[in-house]
Every structure is written in C-alpha cells, then in structure tokens.
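Troubleshooting entry. The earlier prediction with nicotinamide-adenine-dinucleotide gave an output that would not parse, so I re-checked the input for stray whitespace and re-submitted. Clean input:
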Amino acid sequence: MGSHDLLRGAVLGLGMMGRHHARILQSNPAMRFAGAVDPGGDRFGAVSDGALVFATVDELLAAPDGPPDFAVIAVPTEDHLRAVRELAGAGVHVLVEKPLAATADDARELIGVVRDAGVRGAVGHVERCNPALRALRARVQEGLLGDLFVIATERVGPFPDRVRDVGVVKDLATHDLDLVRWLGGAPIERVAAQTQHRMGRQHEDLVLVTGRLENGRAFNSTVDWLTPTKVRRTRVLGERGMLVADTLRADLSFYANAHVTTQGWPAMQALRGVAEGDMTRYALERREPLAVELEEFCALLRGEDGAAVVTLEEGLETVAVAEAVLASAASGETVALEPSPS
Ligand SMILES: NC(=O)c1ccc[n+]([C@@H]2O[C@H](COP(=O)([O-])OP(=O)(O)OC[C@H]3O[C@@H](n4cnc5c(N)ncnc54)[C@H](O)[C@@H]3O)[C@@H](O)[C@H]2O)c1
C-alpha cells in the first residue's frame, strides 16, 4: 500500500490524551496525520508541522489536503456529542475517547448522529488494547482458570487536576465497567456502589462497586483519585488459580492452585481448600495500547474482518452502567440494569 492509500486521521483536542494520538498519527507508518484542532493551540508541542494545527473544525475541513478520513475525539467528555456532530456531519469517521459521552442520553444521541451520517464510529476504551489484559483474556478463554469466580479491578492514584466535567465514576471507573464485561463475557446485570467526596468537588472522587454479570459471574472495582500512588490491577480468580494483570507495567502473572495431596479423602480436601502452587510471569510482546487501538480502528474503516474495536453500543452500555453505579451510591440500594437484548 502506498502512503497515499493510507487513512488520514485528525485529532480534536490536543490535551493530555489528544497529544498522544497526534504523536502516533505522525509516527505510525500505517496511517497519516491530517491535522489537529484545539482552540487553545498546541500547548504540549505535539504537532511537528504548525500549519496542521487549527483553531476550528471548519478550518480543518477546509485544509488544502481535504477533510480527514477519520478524527479522534479527545475533547472533554461533555463536549464529545457536539464534536461528533460537526465531524460525522461532514462525512468523517469518528474514534471517540472514553467515556463515549457524559450521559447515557448524550451517548444515545451520539449513536444516532453517527448512524444518520452513514459514517463508522468506535470508542477508545484503550485498556482492551493493553497487552497484559489481551493476554489475560486469551488465557481465560482457553480455559486456564476453569470456571471463573470473580473479577476484581483496582484503579487508584492521585487526582489529575484537569478533569472538571465528570467524577471518578465516569472518568475512570468506565475503564473497569467496560473491562469486567469484556473479560467476564456478559453484560453487567446489577451493581451496588458507594462513593465518597473527599476533595470538596461537586463530583465523587472514590467509588467501590460490587456487581454481577448476566452470566452470574461476580466482580468488584475499587477506583479513586485519592491514593498517593498509581495502581492499575485486574485479578481474575477461577477454580484453577488466579491471573493478575498490572496494566501500568503490562505484566501478566498466573498463580496456580497446588495439586492437592488429599485425593481420595474428599472431606479433607474440602476442609483444606486451595493451596499455593507455582507462579508464572509471562513474557509478553508489549506494544503501545494506543497505537494498537488506532490500527484496529483503521482496520475497521478498511472493512477488515475481526477489527477489535469497542462499538458505540458497548460505549453506551458502559455509560449507562456508570449511571447505575451513581444511582446505587445515591440511594444505597442495588440497581438492576435493563437486560441486554439477546
Ligand atoms: N483512554 C484513556 O485512558 C484516557 C485518558 C485520559 C483522558 N481520556 C479522555 O480523553 C478526553 C480528553 O481528556 P484529556 O485528559 O485529554 O483532557 P484535557 O483537558 O487535557 O484536554 C482537552 C483538550 O481539548 C481542547 N478542546 C476543548 N474544546 C475543544 C473543541 N471544541 N475542539 C477542539 N479542542 C477542544 C482543550 O483546549 C484541551 O486542550 C476525555 O474524554 C477523557 O475522558 C481518556
């Protein structure tokens, strides 16, 4: 494929996230960079050619090389819908940063805008491209753990001061709510949650969620902006042992149950429970998740089979679960989600 056949991608919003998309679009040989839009300019120096930084979408669309094939929407979450309206309306495919929108109503409207415009869309739940989580899921699907008991995620760390429009549930826990569904193999059926507001902001800064998937599997997630060190850990416990992914380091380890020595004596086996067996840390190919995400989106646009993108409908489902988490925290009750259409 010549470089002229490569898809040209633009970035909307050159902030903490958009600057990384811009870096990859400029350096990955599998795609081309069509420019970036930010009314605040390029404050991180993310774009090497200053002529490709625009203040408005109209300027980007009128650029000499023509409109981009696709745009990455990396503006603050509450502006996703407005940005998608402008881009999709001009025939540009959209990869929308997570969470898909600030509310489930906005997310539904966004899906309608994309559908009516006849363009393709996906959500940037980038954790699904983390090598440790991809490898974890593959091993779960191969049956390494046998029956799954529980998925537990932990995503804690200091507050990134830039997030103003949403709380930790929509900004950060949406990663976890997407992951547990993806790893557990079924939509979330119910959640019970507690939140805390320790920083005096309008939005919550800590959440604890316990939930159940439609296939009966259990999960819990601990997510906050209050912990003085960053932890990103996903544990999946099953009948044969436990897989642990550290997504900051892209490490995956397996803790096997020991072979029990009480065979033929069921009462003793039940009494002693599980014993510690071998631990294996896997050697993984570590590719940057964001580059993989952009490549998968390009594969979708080229019509390739099996492009591993997160659909807009899945993105909506995750925002709806986040709203159920907030409703549960507000009421103190367990909240059931609408059953997914099967
Ligand atoms: N996938 C991830 O792990 C991850 C991590 C961080 C943020 N995000 C998501 O990325 C999005 C942006 O977050 P951030 O942390 O980069 O925010 P940020 O505040 O650092 O950057 C947002 C940028 O958008 C610009 N902007 C605002 N309105 C605009 C408009 N109409 N057109 C163009 N640019 C505009 C702002 O000037 C700013 O530079 C959010 O949806 C967030 O949830 C995802």
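This one parsed fine. The mean pLDDT is 94.
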